[in-house]
Amino acid sequence: MGMSIESFERNATAAELIPALQRDGAVIVRERVDPARMDALVALLAPALDPLEPGGGEFFGYRKKSCGELFANGCEFSETLLLDPLVTEVSDTILGPNCHHYRVNASGSIQVWGGGQNQPLHREMDIYRPFLVHDPARPEYVLATMWAGCDFTTENGATRLAPGSHLWPDGRRATEDEVTQAVMHKGSLLFWLGKSFHGLGKNRTDEPRTGIIFTLTVDWLTQEENQFVAVPPEVARKLPERAQQLLGYRASPLLGWVGGRDSDNLLRPARGKSGPLV
Description:
The protein is of the alpha+beta class. The chain is built from seven helices and twelve strands. It starts with 6 loop residues before the first strand and ends in a 9-residue tail after the last strand.
């Protein structure tokens, strides 16, 4: 087992944890959400998860249940998780300098059930290969958050990570003694960088390990999950305006604009010129 992931009190500031995140590629914030509140969020996802059978093939360890479209399941998810002030502060620091704005890349809940195997370690940035290959010298373009919907333990499949792997050269793989697990209590928050190796752990218990995940990416990369279909305008209009923007209903000066729409929030008409003409 490799080095542990540094953890911080629930009221830690971005300034306190970002040096560790940049050094190790991952950090934990302990019980950021009250456990009872987390139970309520997990319950909202039960109708989507309960009918499913564990599966997912080799890449997901054969015993995974998952659902996407997280922010279409109620305002509670955007208000409690997406708009969490610490998430905003960390995202502003890690992603903000590398884009006009950042937005949700993928979202959902993942349950790990017993009887499977460890997921192969991978990087969030791998989905952009071969157009963007791993380069530790490049800025970060993706930031991931995993919220513990139950206690994450070594036995029930806590997320596996290779601390420091965001700084490794392309082609280097992690050995087992370089891998650790994000052991944390229900309601805790795990951040990891898009260049860090990570994966689902094997669940050796009789109870599912439930996590709620969303990743954020710079606006000039295509979203992994199409948020305009996952959270269409009629649903997005029910969410806080900042959540609407983070889902992608926002344009940069030259990318993503729509004629007659306010580039700062594409769900409303423009007050003036909304974008360049083609």
